[in-house]
Amino acid sequence: MFLNDNLKIFSGSSNPKLAGDVCNYLGIPLGGAHIERFPDGEKTVRVEDDVRGRDCFVVQSTCDPVDEHLVELLIFLDCLRRASASRITAVIPYFGYARQDRKDEGRVPITAKLTANLITTAGANRVLAIDLHAHQLQGFFDIPVDHLSGELVLSKYFRDQKISNLTVVSPDVGNMKIASRYAASLGGELAIVHKRRVSGSKVEAQEIIGDVQGKNVLMCDDIIATAGTICSAAALVKDRQAEKIFVGATHGVLAPPALDRLNQAPIDQVVVTDTIPLNKASKKVGGIKVLSVANMLGEAIKRIHRNESVSSIFTSA
């Protein structure tokens, strides 16, 4: 694969393995950078490669600790801008604050827009992200956004599993479009769970539209955060005599009490991608499989660098 030395890829501290895998796909070395924390808690970044006039990409998921990783990304972008990089792309596999995208009550911020403004002001010329939770978040940025979907990776995995007698279940009404695409891609039936949110962390699945009796069930979403929605839906379909239950998600946030819920839920396998690295506790949960988005990100970076179409990744898949 021919790539000139004008392409430079750097990694923040949130997901260095993913950045390394992207570089392995492209056949180039990871850019040299030193991230240091001062005794008072401040961070600084020093880029060790010459980036003047070069096309630079910074891979950094703004996952837990969200604020720390976000500020580190901003410092990295500013560092590259002041070092005279020709173009700077913020590669954000998981975009934190994406769910704070509207004012649903009085006197609350729209933090997703604030975060987009900060990234632009820090020096990013474009953004490459995966599953922004809501497609309209692309409009929060005043710079170009290339939006990838983990559905490409997850669909291929479940297609290779050749799950028989499959019904794709949407764990809530808002996820129906995603479930419809999976059903069409995998050749399964479609069912929908109606849920009621009891609180910010508790959800109750109340009814299911469609037949799951004796079926193998697949439920897919963009994020598993506290796992309330997915586990409540899994309990309901199991109560309706479903056979095996598979769960897929692009972003395995797995915030407490997600791991406890997944351990207790009647789920046979949970599949997530490596947009967020699993912590030690998450790795101990039985049945969690991690798929890599490195090749998809690498292909997108190659096409951005060459000024080629990124959307054709999905049409040719």
Question: Could you explain the architecture of this structure?
Answer:
- Helix 1 (16-26) crosses helix 9 (294-305) and helix 2 (66-82) runs parallel beside helix 3.
- It is built from ten helices and 14 strands.
- The longest helix has 17 residues, at 66-82.
- It folds into two domains: 7-149 and 294-315, Rossmann fold; 151-291, Rossmann fold (3-Layer(aba) Sandwich).
- It is α/β, with parallel strands linked by helices.
- It has helices spanning 16-26, 66-82, 111-122, 151-161, 176-186, 228-239, 258-264, 280-283, 294-305, 312-315, and strands spanning 7-11, 33-37, 43-47, 55-59, 87-92, 126-130, 145-148, 166-170, 189-197, 203-209, 216-224, 245-252, 269-273, 288-291.
Measured between the Cα atoms of the first and last residue, the distance is: 19 Å
Total DSSP E strands: 14
Which CATH top level class of the largest domain fits? Alpha Beta
Looking at the structure, what is the overall shape?
globular
Provide a quick synopsis of the model:
The chain is an alpha/beta fold.
Topology:
Elements: E1 7-11, H1 16-26, E2 33-37, E3 43-47, E4 55-59, H2 66-82, E5 87-92, H3 111-122, E6 126-130, E7 145-148, H4 151-161, E8 166-170, H5 176-186, E9 189-197, E10 203-209, E11 216-224, H6 228-239, E12 245-252, H7 258-264, E13 269-273, H8 280-283, E14 288-291, H9 294-305, H10 312-315
Parallel strand pairs: 1-4, 4-5, 5-6, 6-7, 8-9, 8-11, 11-12, 12-13, 13-14
Antiparallel strand pairs: 2-3, 9-10
Helix pairs in contact: 1-9, 2-3
